[in-house]
Amino acid sequence: MKIKSAEFVVSNSKVEQCPNSSLPEYAFIGRSNVGKSSLINMLTGRKSLAKTSAKPGKTQLINHFLINSNWHLVDLPGYGYAQVSKSTKKVFQKFITAYFEQRKQLVCAFVLIDSRHQPQAIDMEFMQWLGENTIPFCIIFTKTDKLKLKELEKNIENYKAEMLKTWEEMPEFFITSAAKNTGGEAILDYIENINKQLNKN
Ligand code: GDP
């Protein structure tokens, strides 16, 4: 897919206020600093469509971008566990779970994972939560330029092994580097194929 246009639409803190539109949407999410803004800028070919390296703790917003006038790219804030009083149960921030539970237009979530790290509990738990809520998702490994090829292969194998402890199969995954501008086309083609299928129905 070629990106012909990419426009900011709106930022919200509530799913109820997200655009009233029937366009398919694809959400990008991960822990803060995973490289999400850089990836979105790479995908859209815009230097600063998503803001890179904003300070942690900034207002957490659901950002909608209109791509090629026919789908929405949604930039979600970094996830973390919400503080729940009188309980040690870990839950994700409410407006993030509300987005996934309520947003009918959502076609697929892209969960970003820093390729340098060992599997982290919070990412695993978030994907588990998506699975339990039957929300389709893919994994995007980021910052792969920071690793030697052998290390990258080892980390991906390791990740797969960890995923296969809970999942029957490894979800679709993509290997990217915003610094080297690699891996974006495969993601855009994946989205384009789904959009084509949706248009046929
Ligand atoms: P976000 O908080 O998830 O939106 O992450 P950012 O896109 O702001 O990136 C966090 C930091 O990682 C910044 O210093 C980026 O320059 C750096 N970064 C992001 N993507 C890459 C990448 O592909 N390669 C390298 N080497 N650094 C990256």
TrEMBL record:
SUPFAM superfamilies: P-loop containing nucleoside triphosphate hydrolases (SSF52540). Pfam families: MMR_HSR1 (PF01926). Residues 22-197 form the EngB-type G domain. GO terms for molecular function: GTP binding; metal ion binding. Residues 142-169 form a coiled coil. Its cofactor is Mg(2+). It comes from the Bacteria. GO terms for biological process: division septum assembly. PROSITE patterns: G_ENGB. Keywords: Cell cycle, Cell division, Coiled coil, GTP-binding, Magnesium, Metal-binding, Nucleotide-binding, Septation. Belongs to the TRAFAC class TrmE-Era-EngA-EngB-Septin-like GTPase superfamily. EngB GTPase family. PANTHER family: ENGB-TYPE G DOMAIN-CONTAINING PROTEIN, MSS1/TRME-RELATED GTP-BINDING PROTEIN. Necessary for normal cell division and for the maintenance of normal septation. This is Probable GTP-binding protein EngB.
